[in-house]
Amino acid sequence: MNDRFEPMKLTRRSVLLTAASASAFGWLARPALADPEDVTAARTALFGDAPVTEGRVEVSLPPISENGFSVPIEIDVESPMTPDDHVTRIAVFSPRNPLADIAHFQLGPRAGRARIETRIRLGGTQKVTVVAEMNDGSLWSGHAETVVTLAACVVL
After folding, report:
1. In angstroms, how far is CA 113 from the centroid of its own chain?
2. Per-residue pLDDT of the chain (156 residues; tens, 9 = 90+)
3. Which end of the chain is more exposed for a tag (fewer CB within 10 A), N or C?
4. Residue closest to 51 by CA, chosen among 113, 140, 143, 135
5. CA nearest 97: which of 76, 114, 73?
6. How many Cβ atoms are within 10 Å of 121's Cβ, its own excluded?
7. Which H or E run contains 117?
8. CA nearest 151: which of 120, 123, 121?
9. Cα 66–30–153 angle (5° rounding)?
10. How many other C-beta atoms are found inside a 10 Å radius of the C-beta of residue 116?
11. How far is CA 91 from CA 4, 95, 104, 140, in A?
12. What span, in angstroms and rounded, lies between the C-alpha atoms of 120 and 138?
């Protein structure tokens, strides 16, 4: 056998260094999350400081989402969609994704109905908030919660 290669000795120091390295890597591979302040800042950047009233917006998410990479969402805004009373914008916000604003939609009276069906990525169990802007400038909101078993939006 070659004398230059010695078997690695298991010492207290090597065990502690390995454990510290493993825990540091586990801490670094955490999902990046937005804060509630980020959601407020994103809403303010998009709609200004106008007050938001709860109601007129119905949000549907599945109660449990097995995969956060593709979560179905349905948004219905109560509006006649006439030239005098219609939805102009809809925005979706998330407090647990790396970026608080998930999606923006532009609508007009010719849309006929203020309804959006799409899929979004979610970074974990959370309450998704939707804000709708009407043509008179008023803001309305609704929200829904879902439990995500496999989170998307994980930053390594």
Report:
1. 25
2. 555 666 667 777 766 667 666 665 554 444 556 667 888 899 999 999 999 999 999 999 999 998 889 999 999 999 999 999 999 999 999 998 888 999 999 999 999 999 999 999 998 899 999 999 999 999 999 999 999 988 876 654
3. N
4. 140
5. 73
6. 17
7. strand 115-120
8. 123
9. 45
10. 20
11. 66, 13, 4, 11
12. 26
List C-alpha distances in Å: 1 to 5, 6, 10, 57, 101.
9, 10, 21, 76, 63
| Strand 139-148 versus strand 64-65 pairing type | parallel
**Neighbour count for residue 60 (Cβ, 10 Å):** 13
Scanning the structure block, which residue is given the tokens 């970026």? 99
Residue type, 27: W
* Two structure tokens written together for 7: 């078997």
